[in-house]
Amino acid sequence: MKTQTPTAFLERLNRDYVRLHRRYERLFWTSYMGDHSMDARKDQSQAALDDWRNDPRYREEAARLSRVAGIRERKRLLTWVRFFDLHQLPSEAIPIKREIDRLESDIFRKRAHRKEGYVDPDSGRFVKASWQKMRTMMATHEDEPVRKACFEGTERLAYDLLDDYVRMIGLRNRFARILGYEDYYDLRLRRDDGMTKDELFGLFDDLYERVAPSFGRIRDLEKTVPGLRKPWNFSFMMSGDFTREEEPYLGFEDALLRWGKSFAAMGVRFRGGRLTLDLLDRDRKYDNGFCHWPDLVRYDGERRIPGSANFTCNVVPGQIGSGANGYRTLFHEGAHAAHLLTASNRDVILNHEYPPMSTPWAETQSQFFELVFNDIEWRARYAKDADGKAYPFDLFERKTKRLSPIRPFRLNSIMLVSEFERRIYEADRLTSEEAIRIAKECYRKYNDHSVDSVSALNVPHIFSLDSSATYHAYGLSLLAVAQWREYFYRKYGYIVDNPAVGREMARAWKFGAARSFTEFVTLATGKPLSPDSFLRDALMTPEQVIRQAKRRLKRLESVPLSEGRVRLDADMRLVDGKRTIATNAEGFERMSARYRSWILRKRGASEFS
Fold first, then answer.
1. 62: closest CA among 49, 75, 48?
2. d(Cα 516, Cα 518) in Å, to the nearest integer?
3. Of 252, 356, 516, 544, whose CB neighbour count within 10 A is largest?
4. 482's torsion region: left (phi>0), alpha (psi -120 to 50) or beta?
């Protein structure tokens, strides 16, 4: 490699990485949005990126130059040394990584083209429905036989890719052991999060033991609500009526404008970034929400160049409950986008979601804003029906009392998937039958339902190399979120429409991945990470929750509603596949109005189809 100055070498690293990253991410988005003709090119671009990160010459040159560079450049070069260390692969691991990439693309192609739906219990006719749609129907459909049919339809899907999944686990474990780890879960946890399995699952086991006694309340409730613990009944019987009652206040046609107003009022800005949003369910489209950044925040000399973010979800227009899920995605993935479009590191590897980024810290941002959407403060202020009537406090009060038995279980679904994956990777000579057994045992432990399920095998994260063995990050992030929210409420008394909250978060966001999860939590909250805030909130009685809500709403009365134009400092584009529906070239409000009209037309068409 030609000898270069530290400055020139750093410029080259950033320039080359941006080019390779952008090529892969654009093909990734095209493929995941349903055009699988790009899969081979996507895999080739992934291989080119892997080869570049794995080239030992870059690591050696960065280490050499760090010994002669000035203090500032030395620190940056050592960041690159650490980055290359995370991605160096022994020669024998490379063909296994290639095989994993090919198998993963094959799995997603099969997922996109498989037959999804349920058998109508009355006619015996197969009804086409996506996995996401069937999950929503289980929570909202009034007819139990239909809910059960949807449950059976989703269960069947878990078997479609089972043999491929088992093969994938074997490949990932071989890959991890070549790199010196016990298994792939051990690799992700120790390399990315600096934790051991004993540390993580010791924490989760302690949390589980604290909340497990609450299962007794569910069993007692079942005595007066027969069939409650059947998996196709539980969500509907606990909250299905509330989902329907909330629907008029959470129409998805108004979601974009309400989201934009909320983010703007909280001081969230995208610092000139470009956003592309693809929000509706569609054949062959990936069936889970995500956010990726094809263009990373970077620098040209002293000039900061904004990045771009793409995010997606799977709203079914007009389906009860689907719109609320769309709101959650706007808040969740919108926070992800804001986080890394705000980053200001001179080295692009600290401005993206891949290692050395801490997944728990990244998810802390998204889950924080998802809870803002769930807060009664937000709903009382923003969620209104067609006549302008605000979300009623009486509805919140009844829902709080009804759902109090499951309040302690906020982490259970996360711990379920985490334990399932840990056991899958630890299994000796994993078979399809063993995978099914582990899935059912974990489901039974964390749900205590009267019928077992293999739902863990339908979680999209487990099929992707980048997201597998990281589900625990959602649990760790919820601990951090509870701690951060408690900090803000104690300091300001309110979060919704508080620009000081956005400004404080942005001060942490600018560091991107430059610190560890625990360092970031201490930076943001002034205290080390602890489960105490989470447990205080999860174990509150309904009476305590209602009193707290009244206090917070009273505090919000003195906060004026933002009546000005929505300003997010972003170029935005709303798309449906390759078709552009609206942009904010003429303002956020005009874009929202156009998108609203399009959503209403789509909903009308679906109602008569």
1. 75
2. 6
3. 252
4. alpha
Helices (H), 131-180: 131-140, 144-160, 162-178
Which helix or strand (DSSP H or E) is residue 518 part of?
helix 517-525
The answer to whether the predicted template modeling score (pTM) of the entire model surpasses 0.85 is yes
Residue whose C-alpha is closest to residue 532's, from 150, 125, 207, 86: 207
C-beta of residue 222 within 8 angstroms of C-beta of residue 229: yes
Exposure on the CB side of residue 402, measured as CA atoms within 13 A? 17
d(CA 327, CA 56): 45
* Rounded Cα distance, 436 and 456, in Å: 9
β partners of residue 127: 118
pLDDT value, residue 608: 38
pLDDT in tens, 168-197: 999 999 999 999 999 999 999 998 888 999
554-579 burial, b for 16+ CB within 10 Å, e for fewer? eebeebeeeeeebebebbbbbbbeee
Judge whether 52 and 16 are in contact, CB under 8 Å. Answer: yes
Q: Which two tokens stand for residue 231?
A: 């998996």
DSSP string for 432-465: HHHHHHHHHHHHHHHH--SS---GGGG-GGGG-T
Token pair recorded at residue 419: 């334990």
- Give the model's pLDDT for residue 321: 86
Q: Per the omega criterion (within 30 degrees of 0), is the bond before 560 cis?
A: no
From residue 424, alpha-carbon distances to 190, 329, 358, 360, 428 in Å are: 17, 29, 23, 21, 9
The mean pLDDT of 84-104, rounded to a whole number, is: 94
Which has the closest alpha carbon to 304: 349, 348, 267? 348
CA distance 16 to 34: 28
